[in-house]
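Quick one, tokens below. Sequence please?
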């Protein structure tokens, strides 16, 4: 950890949403400004996919096809973050994993010595059930490092274009 900033390893969590893209842009800017090492993690939520099969919303064949599509999306989003970082002459360590997002983020934070987790805006929770199953909420509550929630997508996009 540097004397100038309280973090040297920044992890941005990607989930394919516009909010996670803004979080990635903000994490790139933070890493560039502070000299921190940038990490990006995309977790294909196979836990939720398994729940859909158990609920008979998907049959096994559909699950396999959908999982393949989710992995393609993951690769596309990771490549985009690599381009964002490259545009700012910054390297990013990327990883795509499958499982429960909160568990995988926690594992990565511990394994890689992450000092700061950057996530996109948290969706509004409309019911008590959603609150119980929200992976992002679980991540916020359980991760062992500080968490920065990147909000105000328009401002972040403007900042990224100006720097």
């Amino acid at each position: 950890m540097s004397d100038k900033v309280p973090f040297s390893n920044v992890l941005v969590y990607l989930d394919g949403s516009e909010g996670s893209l803004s979080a990635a842009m903000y994490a790139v800017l933070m890493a560039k400004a502070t000299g921190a090492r940038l990490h990006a993690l995309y977790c294909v939520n196979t836990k939720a996919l398994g729940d859909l099969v158990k609920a008979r919303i998907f049959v096994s064949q559909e699950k396999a096809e959908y999982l393949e599509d989710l992995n393609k999306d993951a690769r596309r989003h990771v490549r985009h973050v690599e381009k964002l970082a490259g545009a700012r002459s910054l390297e990013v360590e990327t990883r795509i994993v499958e499982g429960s997002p909160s568990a995988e983020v926690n594992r990565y934070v511990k394994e890689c010595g992450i000092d700061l987790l950057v996530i996109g805006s948290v969706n509004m929770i409309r019911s008590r059930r959603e609150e119980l199953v929200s992976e992002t909420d679980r991540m916020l509550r359980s991760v062992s490092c500080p968490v920065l929630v990147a909000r105000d997508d328009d401002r972040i996009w403007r900042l990224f274009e100006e720097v």
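Confidence is low (pLDDT under 50) at residues 127-132. Residues 78 and 94 are 7 Å apart (CA to CA).
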